[in-house]
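Meet today's protein:

…
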Amino acid sequence: MRQAGTYSGILSGGISGKTGPHLLPLARIKKIMKKSGEAVKMISGESPIVFSKACELFIKELTQRSWMVTMQSKRRTLNKEDVASAVMATDLFDFLVNLVSESPLEMDTSKYS
């Protein structure tokens, strides 16, 4: 017989009884999805769950690669430079290169323009 999967309890209340097994707040994800464009009027109940899982996997992958950079430097504290190095070294994160390649001064001034 087939075993129940991680998301099998979502419709019956999930692991926590209210939010399910996801780690990120679904209400916040849904709010961001609605603000993404005027064409987005309604969002199905499953969409925020899928986005939550995708975000969890993205954060996990980026953190693991950043931690490997930290360990190669023989340190035990992960810094923003480690994250930037992981992004620069991985083709998968090419879409983030512009965000991590800017100097801190350039990033601060761009917020207020």
Summary: Confidence is low (pLDDT under 50) at residues 8-18, 107-113. Helices lie at 26-35, 47-72, 80-89, 97-101, 104-111.
